[in-house]
Design brief:
Length: 1205
């Protein structure tokens, strides 16, 4: 039986040949509808569309993969019903090639196919996040040095005004921020110029029409409306029977004052009215016998109104137009200098990325835009027209999170310009929560307002029904958001059209209120002063949640997703959603775990501060440079050396006037000079340091030779630190963190940086710029544990029981308080800095931008709250800490029974926490009965009672364990004490490459040579090392590249065409080499590295004619891989793998030859290094051909001689 669609959903599936905007409420099944539309387009009998002629753009890779999978299943199901349908078979096969992708992946697709149109190299790569930050910092440093050298006046003015006395870092940060913001626009430099337009206003007439003045007037009107409501409310209190009648006259005048202010329509009107605004003095009554509470309430509310009007005047209407113009003129030079330096940074950063053949995600969009749109005209290019013809329809999921660049790209490849509307956009502006990623929900709202809801070329369809949540969850959500979400704050009017309607069919619970939403509150106010310091608000709230979970799990019920029947609540059904994980998530998990509740969170911070990562990074630092005392002391204190605090101190006292690393060195060198008594006293420390020193020297010798991730693995293995970390508490987590560091080392090796020094710098810079990876994730999705996550991460997910917590936490208003504030429509806001007097004056224009930014941030917070509420399927519980119980009393008195349809703009705009929205809204909407206040003491008593119960049950379990039979005990003991009978085999490597064997032979040879000349511990090379990156050079191993080139030539050289006359060798080599380059078998870079004379000398050797003869017989074999088992190297068989350079078969056996380009000074040394390798090659050949290897040769291109082995 097919799915039953609602009327609106069916419209979304069926409508064609128009632009469609689907405003899909949370849980409305938009993904299912989108998949069905794709299926129907493909299966349409009249106008079928091939699936690879659709472009479907989603927000994340996971969403794209999930949608592709769902489309594939839908087509597969249709194919099962019609297995002989050839078209269906074709479409099912094409699914994997369908353009169901993210915008970044689509832009990458455009670049890969049209890179030549913008002069991009075809082998470009997407830069690693850390690498790009390092590169960006390097470019900024270079640019600043250049500006300082030029003594650029605008730049110097900028540094003087906005830098500090010791650093220009604040100006760097401003440029980085402005650069990132500009990148969200199609043409960043154009936006930068437009962002300064307000500073070019010179007349009062222009100023009056400026957007920021209009915004100020509108803000004033909205605030005064709220103040008028407030005045009317306390005026009504004066008119009550028991109200303060003596205040009535003054309060009535307050109402009239607000009405006069509300009639203002221009900035000048507000300025003049506020200048003459005077409040009357409250009347007095000696014989007042009315309600003292109402009297106090009137006085309190009136004081708030007077303060609010005073603030409105000082913040918004304190200056004349002339004073505002003067301020704009003062700030203009700084703003222009900032924009100019930012433009130069854009150019320099772009150039550096081009040099390294790097692109970032922002480049993907802008390069694609350059390919598809002409900047001067804004019209689609010829390439864009090709895409227009290719795609029958363009579908955009999560459209509310698009930005201007993405919008421009997708409209360029749509058929709008040729009069054929084929855009399909789906999203929900109420869930637009990516403002920090520069998403522009106004793009969605522009179409929401202009598209018709009836049949039209541009049509809007609203999906209201929610198929996720119970009606109780939806009713509560609607009650709250009717009150608080409006167009002027939140971006959309939450009316009946925007509300959620229940489409899910849940069975009713046994208790009528079992699934009612709850608001649980507590406070630290009632705790004694000493206890308050011990228990934070976060910890107390976590205890509140733990108490509620204890009462819920195993007792209350939810509907099982698979059976549709009721079952008991499990821990895995529960999620705790937080606005921010920082300072909350780890503490919540700790408190829940302490209360016997399994809980899991994935922190996005704290990785670099974990003990195991700090210890390993310190070890890497001293491997790179041992003259670093703090990392050295940290490593010596760690289990890698295991010194005690006393031993560390004794090392320090050896030479107080010298660095610590020299004290360590002195101790190791002083063994012979110590008396027997001293030697005995230091025996433990000496043994530890000797062991540490040996491991350290062994590892340090390898730092230049092996990749970073291999070095890291060797450090963990040789020091034993990986085993130690895994044995600590939370060992699995620590081990996962160490493995994650190895993964990051592998990722680092793919960047343009190389070596240990650069890796340490890379990590240091990541820490400096807060690129934290978060601790490695361990808990799987199916583990029965309470999940703690951010609201942002929960988007698109659903949970049976949802705690929305931390609702008493203050909003983050950092964006509106920084030195520079940016706004998409208003531009750049800066403070006025009087350079001579070093005085900072808040500029009016910046204040307007700050206020507008704050309002937009509050709108985002409202949408975040909506996302949180709509994650709950069956039970929604809101928790938070409040100031005190009196706050609840005040809210109840003001809002309960007020029958208000919505909180006014002033009440919503002045909120500092989510609870300041939720509690008044709950009271005004009649949901106050869902509010519960839990005293801290009752909560702590419940926790203590639970611990006592747990202690009793633990004692019972211990008693049960003691009653276990001896037979069972012996069996368990036998299993737990089992030891592997072949312990030596644990350390065996199961497969060796021949190269590894060569390196092992080289190390043994080096060790033999160095027996008498062992380098002293921590001794540094005297020649100063200048890293190549400081010289602007890429680090390249030319010897390795030349070796590869020579091997490639010898592999491809055609010996059948080798001349008989040696005078012709050089010309023949050049001719063959040119041909190989033309065929693409040898690159031009390789060609430059090949030494023709060396190859010529080889052809003159005794071996070349024999190779020619073998080639003529087809008995010459080159670059042949093999794998064989070997028992001689270890007790158990290991596999040996390798590639043989060349061998040939003669009548009486095989001749084996290996080419070498090593820098050696004698044939004997080369023979010693490679004898084992050639013996293994010979063994492999004898096993394969059943012929003896009669001769083995090395040919050294360095020595130009054949060496028989």
């Amino acid at each position: 039986m097919g799915m039953t669609w609602t009327k609106e959903q069916q419209q979304v599936i069926d409508l064609r040949n128009r632009n469609i905007l689907v405003s899909a409420a949370a849980g409305s099944g938009k993904t299912a509808v989108l998949v069905e539309r794709i299926k129907e387009l493909v299966l349409d009998k009249k106008h079928p569309v091939d699936i690879d002629h659709l472009l479907v753009v989603t927000f994340t890779n996971a969403a794209a993969a999930q949608m592709k999978e769902r489309v594939a299943k839908a087509l597969e199901k249709a194919l099962q019903e019609n297995p002989s349908d050839v078209r269906l078979q074709q479409q099912a096969a094409l699914v994997q090639n369908a353009q169901i992708t993210t915008i970044d992946s689509f832009c990458l697709y455009v670049l890969r196919n049209h890179f030549h149109e913008i002069g991009l190299e075809p082998n470009f790569r997407i830069g690693d996040e850390g690498e790009l930050k390092l590169l960006r910092e390097d470019v900024m440093t270079g640019l600043f040095e250049q500006c300082y050298e030029e003594k650029h006046p605008g730049f110097l003015h900028l540094i003087s005004c906005y830098g500090t006395s010791r650093s220009d870092a604040p100006v760097r940060d401003m440029i980085f921020k402005l650069y990132s913001y500009a990148q969200s626009y199609p043409w960043p430099k154009q936006w930068l110029r437009e962002a300064l337009s307000c500073y070019e206003i010179k007349t009062e007439q222009e100023l009056e029409q400026a957007p920021f003045i209009e915004m100020t007037v509108e803000y004033g009107k909205q605030m005064v409306k709220g103040y008028l409501e407030q005045a009317e409310h306390y005026h009504e209190l004066c008119q009550d029977v028991d109200g303060p009648y003596m205040y009535e006259e003054a309060c009535e005048q307050d109402v009239e004052l607000m009405e006069e202010l509300l009639s203002c329509s221009t900035y000048q009107d507000f300025y003049e009215e506020l200048e003459k605004c005077k409040f009357a003095t409250l009347g007095r009554a000696k014989d007042y016998i009315g309600s003292p509470e109402k009297q106090e309430q009137v006085k309190t509310e009136r004081k708030k109104l007077k303060d609010g009007i005073g603030k409105l005047k000082s913040d918004c209407f304190a200056l004349t137009f002339q004073e505002i113009l003067e301020q704009l003129t003062l700030v203009q030079p700084s703003a222009e200098a900032l924009a100019e330096v930012t433009e130069r940074f854009i150019d320099a950063f772009t150039e550096r990325k081009q040099d390294k053949n790097l692109v970032d995600f922002s480049d993907l969009e802008h390069f694609a835009l350059e390919i598809l749109v002409e900047e001067e005209t804004g019209k689609p290019t010829e390439t864009a027209k090709e895409f227009q013809n290719a795609y029958e329809e363009i579908m955009i999921d999560e459209y509310q999170d698009s930005n201007y660049v993405q919008e421009t790209i997708l409209r360029a490849i749509s058929r709008e310009v040729v009069g054929q509307n084929n855009l399909f956009m789906v999203g929900d502006v109420k869930q637009s929560i990516y403002r920090f990623r520069l998403a522009r929900p106004e793009l969605f709202m522009e179409k929401f307002d202009t598209y018709e809801t009836t049949d039209a070329p541009c049509q809007r369809i609203d999906l209201h029904k929610n198929f996720r949540s119970r009606d109780t969850v939806l009713a509560f959500t609607n009650d709250i958001f009717y009150q608080i979400m409006k167009r002027n704050l939140g971006g959309v009017d939450y009316t009946d059209e925007a509300a959620l309607y229940c489409g899910a069919d849940y069975p009713a619970g046994e208790k009528e209120d079992a699934f009612d939403s709850e608001i649980l509150l507590t406070t630290t106010q009632e705790l004694e002063e000493g206890t308050k310091q011990q228990i934070s608000k976060q910890e107390l709230e976590a205890k509140l949640i733990a108490d509620r979970i204890r009462k819920m799990v195993g007792k209350e019920e939810v509907v099982d997703e698979e059976t549709g029947e009721f079952r008991k609540v499990r821990y895995g059904d529960i999620v705790i959603l937080l606005r921010s994980l920082s300072e909350w998530a780890d503490l919540f998990a700790e408190v829940l775990n302490a209360n016997g509740i399994p809980a899991h969170t994935v922190s996005r911070t704290g990785y670099f501060s974990t003990l195991e990562i700090r210890t390993v990074l310190n070890y890497l630092r001293i491997l790179d440079n041992p003259r670093q005392d703090i990392p050295l002391a940290a490593v010596l204190k760690s289990p890698m050396a295991g010194l005690s605090d006393e031993q560390l101190a004794r090392l320090r006292l050896l030479a107080e006037d010298k660095p610590y690393h020299q004290c360590v060195k002195m101790f190791l060198e002083a063994e012979e000079e110590l008396t027997e008594k001293e030697s005995t006293a230091d025996e433990d420390m000496r043994a530890k340091l000797k062991r540490f020193s040996e491991t350290y020297k062994k590892l340090r010798r390898q730092t230049m030779d092996i990749p970073m991730h291999e070095l890291l693995q060797k450090v963990l293995k040789e020091t034993g630190y990986a085993r130690y970390a895994s044995a600590l508490p939370a060992g699995r987590q620590r081990l996962a963190n160490l493995h994650m560091l190895s993964e990051k080392a592998i990722a680092y090796e793919k960047t343009s940086y190389r070596g240990l020094y650069h890796f340490i710098r890379y990590i240091d810079e990541l820490q400096k710029y807060d690129v934290d990876f978060g601790e490695a994730e361990l808990v799987g999705e199916n583990e029965d544990a309470v999940n703690i996550m951010s609201i942002h991460k929960s988007k698109g997910l659903e949970f049976p029981v949802c705690f929305v917590s931390g609702m008493g936490k203050s909003f983050n208003k950092q964006d509106s308080r920084s030195k520079m504030i940016l706004h998409p429509n208003l531009g750049v806001g800066l403070d006025i800095i009087e350079e001579d007097r070093r005085i900072k004056v808040p500029a009016f224009f910046k204040k307007v931008i700050a206020r507008q930014t704050e309002l937009e941030s509050l709108g985002e917070e409202l949408r975040v709250l909506y996302v949180a509420f709509t994650r709950a399927k069956e039970k929604l519980i809101i928790t938070g800490c409040i100031k005190d119980e009196e706050m609840l009393q005040q809210i109840r008195e003001i809002y309960c029974g007020s029958n208000r349809k919505a909180l006014n703009f002033k009440e919503r705009a002045e909120a500092k926490t989510f609870l300041e929205w939720i509690l008044p809204a709950a009271a005004a909407s009649g949901s106050w009965n869902k509010v519960s206040y839990v005293t801290p003491w009752s909560m702590l008593e419940d926790e203590a009672a639970h611990q006592i119960t747990e202690h009793v049950s633990l004692r019972q379990r211990v008693q049960q364990a003691e009653e276990v039979s001896d037979t069972l005990y012996e069996k368990i003991k036998e299993q737990l004490s089992y030891q592997y009978p072949h312990p030596d085999a644990i350390h065996l490597v199961t497969k060796y490459s021949v190269s590894e064997l060569k390196h092992r032979a080289m190390r043994e040879l080096a060790a033999k040579e160095e027996e008498d000349v062992t380098p002293k511990f921590l001794e540094e090379v005297s020649t100063p090392y200048v890293p190549a990156f400081m010289e602007g050079k890429a680090e390249v191993n030319q010897g390795a590249l030349r070796g590869t080139a020579m091997h490639r030539l010898m592999e491809c050289y055609d010996f059948t065409k080798m001349p008989d006359c040696s005078d012709e060798f050089a010309e023949n080599i050049k001719k063959q080499l040119t041909g190989l380059v033309q065929m693409g078998k040898v690159s031009e870079d390789m060609q430059k590295l090949i030494r023709i004379p060396s190859v010529e000398l080889f052809l003159k050797s005794q071996l070349a004619p024999r190779m020619k003869a073998a080639a003529m017989r087809d008995d010459l074999f080159r670059e042949k891989p093999f794998v064989m088992g070997n028992h001689e190297m270890e007790e158990e068989m290991v596999l040996i793998q390798g590639i043989i350079d060349v061998f040939w078969v003669e009548e009486d056996g095989i001749v084996l030859l290996d080419y070498k380009t090593d820098r050696v000074d004698s044939a004997t040394r080369l023979r010693d290094m490679y004898k084992e390798q050639l013996d293994l090659y010979a063994e492999a050949l004898e096993r394969i051909f059943l012929l003896p290897v009669k001769e083995k040769y090395l040919y050294s291109f360095r020595l130009n001689q054949a060496i028989e082995v």
